[in-house]
Every structure is written in structure tokens, then in C-alpha cells.
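Notes to self, BMP family ABC transporter substrate-binding protein:
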Amino acid sequence: MADRPHRSRIALAALATAAATALAGCGTEAEPVVRAAAAGGDGLGLEQVRVGLAFDQGGRGDKSFNDAAAAGLDRAKKELEVDGAEVTLSEETEEERTARLRELAEQGRNPVIAVGFLYATSLKKVAAEFPGTTFAIVDDDSFTAPNVVSLVFAEEQGSYLAGAAAALKSRSGRVGFIGGVRMPLLQKFEAGFAAGAAKARPGVRVSVDYISTPPDFGGFGAPDKAKKIAEGMLASGVDVIYTAAGGSGAGTLEAVAARRGAWAIGVDTDQYQTADAGVRDSILTSMVKRVDNAVFQEIQAFIKGDRSGGVKRFDLKTDGVGYATSNTEAVAPLQRKVDAVRRRILDGTVTPPTEP
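result:
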């Protein structure tokens, strides 16, 4: 039988440690070689690691939040050779979210990862129904359960850097923030951005607007509305706009690309890398939120035997958030100053606010 790649041998070694015995083996093309020690019983049986991922609004292809989660699963499939299944919502209802999570659990998917805080209510219910399944949820720590892991981020830190970059780049001294839904999670982005801008350039004016307000969560999938808000900001003199609104951010990019001298700041992923050619050069930077790292590390932890619930926080120190420098020509003049701000956050000199 042909040897497996080196990564597979490393993964097997990690699993052997987790099971407190030496395990060896090889799989077929239809059966990934990475396995986890089966819980319970007197033996040390093996079970195939079969991950389930439930996307938030927009699903894979949003070039933002969901794509970041998808990248984490893709990496786990490649490097850890897990089997992965994805579900996308057909409608935005609590019943649909519950049904999709239950579907993954009934298939024997474990762990099951819910992408986005909107899954919280459904996950609380389904996790109680399947106590032997490990669940994880991105962006929510509103409840605790022995089999639920909350993956949360220091969005205010990355947004502080984005604010500094925006203020330093602005010619007018006016920058803007557009949030998807007016709620505490998105207000962390707003608070960090406004504080970072004010510190980098005292006197800078920050315009703020949101696409929707709870119970309307449609602001994450309304690029037309984001475009209209962005156009209004640009007409008022704002020349750098940071949008934290999932797929709605595409609307801001459109508006900014049509305005000469204006800049957009992306969110979640490095959007300069994925944006269409027509808007790409208008992206100054992106506040990178490493949902991909969180998803990958949670799968990795499960493989190594970690089944406990709790909260895992991803910040600058853990490479959980940051800012992108892909648009080298645009960022280079600011990078030294923004990196200095980053160091001040890391050493505790600066603590970005989490509320506006």
C-alpha cells in the first residue's frame, strides 16, 4: 500500500497521544486516514472524523464571513483529511436553522459547527438533544452547555487598526462605518473603528449608519441598501468607508469604486484577494477576522480529544484578528504607523473599546 502524506502521519501521531496508545493504519481513498478515539466503552475503537458546518446567511461564496468559515473547513479536509459536510439555509427562520443542525447531528457529524450568532437559540435546543455530539458556534457566548464551544473574537482590536488606517488615508478628514445590524456584536466593530480613527487623527469625523435593526437581520444580505448608504456618505464628504455587514459589503464596494479618490475597507476576509477587478483597487485594507483559524483549530482540538464546552477567544495575540496589507501600494505609506498601533494593543498600552 502506498505511503500516506507526511501530514497524515503527524495527524495519526496526535491521535495516538490523545488515545494514550500507539495507533497505526492507513485508509482507502474513500475513507480519510484521520480518525479519533471513540468515546465510551472499554475498547479503543476508531471512528471517522466527519465534520458538519452550517452556514450563516448567504452561505459559501459571500466573499466574507461564510467564506472564512469555509476556508477553515477546506484546510481541515486537506491537512487533517477529515470528511466535511455543509448545509446552507433555504430560508431565514428558526425552524430552518434547527432543522439543519439536527440534520447534521442525525448524520453522525461530529463536531457540528454553526456559523453565526443567529444559530444560538436553535443550537441550544439541538445540543441538548444530542449530548454526545460536540457543537461549536461562531460569534456567540450567550449560553453555556457541556458540549458547546463558543468561538468569539476581539473585533474591536482589528477594527481599531482599520480606523487608524482610514483616518491616516483620508484626505477630507471624514470616514464612515456601515454596520449590517445595529446590535452589540456589530457595535464592537463600530466602537473600535471610531476610537482607532480618533486616536490616529484627532478631530477626524466618523459617520455611522446601520442597514437594519433587530428583529430585522436582513442587513447582512442587502448590498443594494449598503450601496445607497455608502453613496450618501460619499456625497457628504466621507472618503473612506468601513463596512461590517457580511454580503452587504459588496454594495459599498460598488459605490466606492464609482467615486474617484474614495476607499473601502473590507471585513472578515482579505477582500482585496477576492473582489472583482472593477472594485479591487478601491479596497484600502480589510479587518481580517480569522474565522478560518477558529474553525480549523476547533476541528483539530476535537481530533486530539477535546470534547469540553467553553469559550475560546481569538484576538491579536492569537492571530484571531488583524488587518490586511495585500494592496501594498495603498497601505505602504500607512503601515509603519498602523503597526505601531498594533504593538500598543499587544503590549496593553491601548485597550480598544467594545461599546460606542
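- The first strand starts at residue 35 and ends at 37.
- Residues 42 and 342 are 50 Å apart (CA to CA).
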